[in-house]
Design brief:
The chain has helices at 5-14, 93-107, 118-127, 141-149, 161-173, 217-238, 276-284, 291-300, 306-322, 378-396, 406-424; strands spanning 19-22, 29-32, 42-47, 53-61, 67-71, 76-79, 137-139, 188-195, 198-206, 246-251, 254-260, 264-265, 269-270, 273-275, 333-335, 343-344. It is α+β, with helices and mostly antiparallel strands. The strands form 5 sheets. It has a 5-stranded antiparallel sheet, with helices on one face. Strands 8-9-11-10 form a 4-stranded antiparallel sheet. Strands 14-15-16 form a 3-stranded antiparallel sheet.
Amino acid sequence: MGISQATLSRAIQSLGNQIIRFGRYRSIHYALRRPLLAMPDAPIYRITPEGRVEALGQLSPVQPTGYVMTNADGSASHSEGFPWWLDDMRPQGFLGRAFVAAQAETLGLPPRLGDWQEEHTLRALLSQPGNDAVGNLILGDAGRQYFLQRPEPVALPSAGLTAAYAERARQALSGETPASSAGGEQPKFGAYAETTNGPRHVLVKFSLDVAEGADNPIAQRWRDLLLAEHHALTLLRENDIAAVATRILDHGQQRFLEVERFDRIGPHGRRGLISLSAMDAEFIGLGRGGWPAMTARLLAERHITGEAHQAACLLHAFGTLIGNTDMHPGNLSFVTDSGRPYQLAPAYDMLPMAFAPRSSGELPTTLPAAGFDSQISIAQWRQALALALSYLGRLNNEAGFNTGFGECLAALERHLQTAAERIGRLG
């Protein structure tokens, strides 16, 4: 720059609080604050598994793009874009669109979620203190105060629970439910309810109420898929593979899949959670290639444990064999409470999505040929095949499916017969 160190130091000092300094010794960096939302910093808090609020640090937008996170211990880091560890808190999926429909105009945000920039996301997270976001982080002092002052949650009682869920479903479809960042396109809502395991925070997926047209084939297919998801996750748990606890509840023609949240502990405790999608974007940038390829890279760079990679491979093999065509990076997550390397979170969203209704209204009854990912060992393919055959047996013995789902079960049986023959040739 053609100036002395003393001249530079005086210039930096003259800018006062506009400059953020981070790093030590020869690694010192200086960043100029970027005006965003008329506030210099956004405090970040973490909720412990015991339900205590801890200050994590301050998030500061800086020029020309990106953020500096100054941690409570004085350390700091810079991210070039929206911080990856906040990515999963973005409004997304069915609940995200419901939030936008209900709140965008009030908050001065674009009416389409796809048009949002980082500023819009940050404004939404800071302006909704009751946002029941995925994981254990809270943005802003208003969110901290809301968490500390909210009353003890009262679980929805078992008596009349299906009627209560039906009303919550109606509110979710009309955009009346509280904000949440839980992703996925299936209609859902959050609740605190009495379950078979006691009071739990739950996400409840639901089919549309077809009481006025019980022969609606699309609604019937989603009813069947919710039941199929329940069986897949129950089977995994019964075989000592970590998966969410689920329960099926019916209210007339409407079906609910109650999913216990693994990022919530008791009435107030929370666990840190990061999706494979967020980790891929920050650390490896593959964007595609399947869970095994992504987790193999994350393992090689010591971001996840070896057990997490092996479990992801087995889940991917099982999902492939049962026709889960929706194993995108947002449907696999890691628990972050104990730091890196991260452990795999319980499995969720595991079902034969190949049978899901298409946007055209078509109801598929066939499965694509299984691809045999080379990252998955022969032993894992054989274990996954045994699980998939057990799964088929459970579905064939289930009386809760509609008659039309029989074609799907026949297709799954043929699919597994072909897969078994090909797995037998692996060596």
